[in-house]
Model the fold of this input.
Amino acid sequence: MKKIFIAMLCCAGFSITVHAQEIDKLAWMAGTWTQAKDGEIVQESWLGPRGKMMVATNLTSGKRNSFEFLRIVEKDGALAYLASPGGRAPTEFKLKEMGEKKVVFENPAHDFPQRVIYWIEADGAMKARIEGTIQGKERGMEWRFEKTKS
Done:
């Protein structure tokens, strides 16, 4: 019955548009991104979007050595960013804002950070920022990643 109704709508001059999934709007994050600064290398590699998700790893070496597993998923009709520093259980940040080349995730209940932000600069660099409050004072950390050439 549904097929007949859709066929009737199309014949009557109506068009049916299939909307892209919200996660597809973050395709600009895909790839491997590197920041080499002050004797430290931070590399973040994003796969996807595919299957309503993107997955990434972050590897930092130099002064500090650390890793983090990252995911952006479509969950209950909205996007969520899940961060697992050092492979620990994930902390979820819900989508707060999304533009053409910028995305902001937020979890006001988390100790630090409360916000995770990614955006593309005019020169093609990807910036990442975490921010929030620690003991009542605003704090933040920012990275400027260059896309790694294949």
Summary: The chain is about 5% helix and 55% strand.
